[in-house]
Design brief:
The protein is α/β, with parallel strands linked by helices. It has 15 helices and 26 strands. Among the domains are: 156 residues, ANL, N-terminal domain (Rossmann fold, 3-Layer(aba) Sandwich), CATH 3.40.50.12780; 98 residues, GMP Synthetase, Chain A, domain 3 (2-Layer Sandwich). It has a nine-stranded mixed beta sheet, sandwiched between helices. A hairpin with a 3-residue loop joins strand 24 and strand 25.
Length: 527
């Protein structure tokens, strides 16, 4: 059997029996949500309160124009370049409703970065923030299938249409929706690209729908009475899936396009946010704010974070401020549609937790043979949220999906209880002499120190051992900490050869990509 057949047999066949009444595509999801929650608020943005019904009208108008005036067919790509704002929601749902494939792209990217992604996906339509036009217009001739560009402005330049042209007309009498097959592609999400060029991970309608169903059966699943705030870019899997899943559940979503930490905390207080989905780095900045304790955050029912490891001091500070709210730390990736493993972070701060209800997980050696508890190997995953492959890159797809398991490239182990612990990226591994050292293990130890705000562990060249361990630390504001404090902490918890030989302190935040992951190559090149 090929990898798709293995996934179907081992993952989807049992789930299809468990969820026979599931929606079969995202057009059906959208239609059901609008009908069920019509008068409730779907989105709050800069003082606007957009109801499910109003959003539904805008989406059906836009879907009608895209399908009937610009000939968007099922499977055509639609590029979306908006921040966290209602135009993003309208664009995504309108494209999905007619069976098009949504390609969310990073609005922070420069012209050459966007050109690569646009040439790869070859969209028929581009929907974008007007501020990005100067990056797109010079390269539009390189996109063969492109028929129209819509920008959020009233008086666009020649060859560009105002976004309002999609939503200003009457609601069409006949629905433009196409109810495609659940295995058809819905999104192309670009991987974070910490090494080399980002790849386009194709997600099917089915993979998104099962992620919603997984959230429904988890302890912190979405409900219509909840208020969700997503202060992260929606072009990433985590942000977009959180918004789509919130819509599926009838949850009110607070959109923040541009914000500072104080404004985020103000929004939580004002809108009585119950669920805040943020990167661990955002929470670190929040608890470091001098005014953190001044805000009423008692409405928060659950704290979600992921994207990178979260220091123990941050976890402790959140628990002090929000003792009633469970902290859910997730581990996942674009190829598996976001979170696959979740844990109560306060109870198990050094673990990623147990695989969620629809995820299977193994730790394997170089030959893909299973390893025993506490043995470090590569983390292999398969689940109902699994991607359909890399867009126009079958070779890379076959490599990571061999045997019907997604090979994450992450190293880790499972303890006696089956909980997952991350040891680091396979390519991040430090080889000191003949010893393999996994940076994440040391980072987890150093993060326990209450004065540590951020930490990254890298390998640096050594004439004798090949590599030595270096810890790069950003202290918490106002905290005092020395090299020997760090070495002593490590000596108490890890083998001597793992203790950092070099400890560097810096005042500037660690460099991260937009997904929140630390750019270790940049640290190594600047060292």
């Amino acid at each position: 059997m090929n990898w798709q057949q293995i996934i179907q047999k081992e993952v989807f066949d049992p789930l299809e029996k468990e969820f026979p009444e599931r929606p079969r595509n995202l057009a059906e999801v959208f239609q059901r949500a609008v009908e069920t929650h019509a008068d409730q608020t779907a989105i709050v943005y800069e003082g606007q309160h957009v109801s499910f019904s109003a959003l539904g009208d805008s989406v059906i108008k836009a879907a009608h124009v895209l399908r009937n005036q610009y000939g968007v067919e099922a499977g055509d790509r639609v590029a979306v370049l908006f921040g966290t704002e209602p135009t993003f929601a309208i664009s995504v749902w309108a494209a999905l409703a007619i069976g098009a494939v949504v390609c969310p792209m990073n609005i922070r990217y420069l012209k050459q970065e966007l050109q690569y992604q646009l040439e790869l996906t070859d969209p028929k339509i581009i929907l974008l923030d007007a501020e990005l036009l100067d990056r797109i217009l010079p390269i539009k001739g390189e996109i063969p299938s492109l028929k129209a560009i819509f920008a959020s402005m009233d008086d666009p330049p020649e060859g560009v249409y105002p976004f309002s042209a999609l939503t200003n007309g009457p609601v069409p009498e006949a629905t433009p929706y196409r109810f495609v097959e659940e295995t058809d592609p819905a999104f192309i999400f670009f991987t974070a690209g910490t090494t080399g060029r980002a790849k386009g991970a194709v997600n099917s309608h089915r993979s998104l729908i099962y992620s919603f169903l997984r959230a429904r059966i988890s302890a912190a699943g979405g409900q219509s009475s909840q208020v969700l705030c997503i202060p992260i870019p929606l072009h990433y899997t985590g942000g977009c899936k959180s918004f789509l899943g919130g819509f599926y559940s009838g949850t009110k979503c607070i959109f923040l396009k541009h914000w500072k930490i104080e404004e985020l905390l103000e929004a939580v207080q004002e809108h009585k946010v119950t669920n805040l989905f943020a990167l661990g780095s955002i929470w670190a900045l929040a608890v470091a704010s001098e005014n953190f304790s001044k805000y009423d955050l008692s409405s928060i029912q659950a704290v979600f974070y992921g994207g990178s490891s979260t220091p123990a001091a941050v976890i402790k500070r959140i628990s002090e401020a929000l003792p009633h709210a469970p902290q859910v730390q997730g581990y996942g990736m674009t190829e598996c549609n976001g979170g696959t493993v979740e844990v109560d972070a306060l109870a198990r701060p050094t673990s990623c937790g147990m695989p969620n209800a629809t995820t299977q997980l193994r730790i394997a050696d170089e030959d893909d043979s299973d390893l025993s508890a506490n043995e470090v190997g590569q983390i292999l995953i398969r689940n109902a949220q699994i991607f359909s492959g890399y867009w126009k890159n079958e070779l890379a797809t076959e490599e990571v999906m061999r045997g019907g398991w997604y090979h994450t490239g992450d190293m880790g182990y499972r303890d006696e209880e089956g909980r997952l612990h991350i040891a680091g990226r396979e390519k991040d591994m430090i080889i000191r002499g003949q010893e393999n050292i996994y940076p994440a293990e040391i980072e987890a130890v150093i993060s326990q120190h209450p004065s540590v705000g951020e930490v990254a562990v890298i390998g640096v060249p050594d004439e004798i051992f090949g590599e030595q361990v270096q810890a790069i630390i950003v202290p918490r504001s106002g905290a005092e900490i020395g090299e020997e404090d760090i070495r002593q902490l490590c000596q108490e918890q890890v083998a001597g050869f793992k203790v950092p030989k070099f400890v560097q302190f810096r005042n500037q935040p660690l460099p991260r990509n937009p997904g929140g992951k630390i750019l270790k190559r940049e640290l190594q090149s600047s060292g």
